[in-house]
Amino acid sequence: MGNWKVTARLGSEVRRSRCTSLDQALELISETIDTALRAERSGPVKAIRTYERSEIVGGRIEISSPGLLRSRDAGIDVMGDGRLIAYAGSVRKKELANGGKIEAIDALRAEFDQGGQRS
What we know:
By secondary structure, this protein is of the alpha+beta class. It is built from two helices and eight strands; from the N terminus they run ββαββββββα. It has helices spanning 22-38, 101-113, and strands at 4-10, 13-19, 45-46, 50-51, 57-64, 73-79, 84-88, 94-99. A six-stranded antiparallel beta sheet has the order 2-1-5-6-7-8, with helices on one face. Strand 3 and strand 4 form a beta hairpin. Helix 1 (22-38) runs antiparallel to helix 2 (101-113). It is globular, with a radius of gyration of 14 Å. It starts with a strand and ends in a 6-residue tail after the last helix.
């Protein structure tokens, strides 16, 4: 069916992978979520203001559908408090799910199975 692209940003590490199917890409995302959740999480961060763990993105895993010009993007943010936020779009993100791993992966599958709107 084409090349699904998965990009994982965990801390300063960036990993890019290609998968031959949506199922393979979602399995890779599931494994990457497990890795991100096992990683040590920092406490609150002080910059201009204090950012609590629930506001910090500890990892971002993105998936792009096959296609050069009309590919769709979605992903999952792994928050500092362990929550997972699934979203669609690359610039204007639309939240799909907020909670656990199963809900996040199911939301991504539904987004691509239904041919969700491009953002």
